[in-house]
Amino acid sequence: MSLKNPYGDFEITEPQALRALAHPVRLAILDRLQRHGPATATALSPHVGATPSVVSWHLRHLATFGLVTDWDGATSKRERWWQAAARGFRFTLPDDAEGQAAGRQLRGEMFARYADAPQQWLLQDEPRLDAEWRGLAGVADTRFVATADEMRQLEEAIEELLGPYVRRKDDQAPPADAQVVRMLRYVLPEPGDDSAAS
């Protein structure tokens, strides 16, 4: 596993790591650390629905795969602080049966975790935005026909476009009027059949 994409995301390739992350508490822990920065098991506990001791166990499990690491910026040595190893993660389904099953399990957990994210945004975040930012939010359901090679090219082009914005925190201070934007992107190829082009 390595950081090898334009976003600096953690690339997960091992089936064991995919399975380890395919757990609701572990996924919640990693999400919280990525979005809010370093924390202790005690601080994470109310946000991930588990006791501090259970959270601590899950953190150690995530650490075995390099997804989280110790944070050395803590002022107190009494509690162990953790940080996400990268701002995000990604994976592709491995070729072997074990990897395919583990990848599908993780996808299922991710779909379940983020299924209500748009609705929560609509209820909690959208009302607090000014009119300009509300107008920039978008939803699309676009179907198109492409080859596997064209899909790879499309994904690479999207990453190239987004890369400078994702890395902005590292490279330079964002403009004063910038806000954090979350882009949820599902790429869902449909099985080939007679209606594929309709």
Keywords:
mainly alpha; 2 domains; three-stranded antiparallel beta sheet; 9% strand; 49% helix; Arc Repressor Mutant, subunit A; 198 residues; three-stranded mixed beta sheet; globular
CATH architecture of the largest domain: Orthogonal Bundle
Structural class: mainly alpha
CATH topology term of the largest domain: Arc Repressor Mutant, subunit A
What are the secondary-structure elements, in order, as H or E?
EEHHEHHEEEHHHHH
> CATH homologous superfamily of the largest domain, by name?
Winged helix-like DNA-binding domain superfamily/Winged helix DNA-binding domain
Low-confidence stretches: none
Q: What oligomeric state best describes the polypeptide chains here?
A: single chain
Lateral strand order in the biggest sheet: 1-2-6
Strand content: 5-15%
Mean pLDDT over the full residue set: 88
Major β-sheet profile: 3 strands, mixed
- Please give the domain count: 2
Provide the helix percentage. 40-55%
By DSSP (H or I, 4+ residues per run), the number of helices equals 9
Bulk shape: globular
How many beta strands in the DSSP annotation?
Answer: 6
Q: Which radius of gyration do the C-alpha atoms yield?
A: 19 Å
Which CATH C-level class of the largest domain is it?
A: Mainly Alpha
Task: State the separation between the terminal residues, measured CA to CA.
Answer: 40 Å
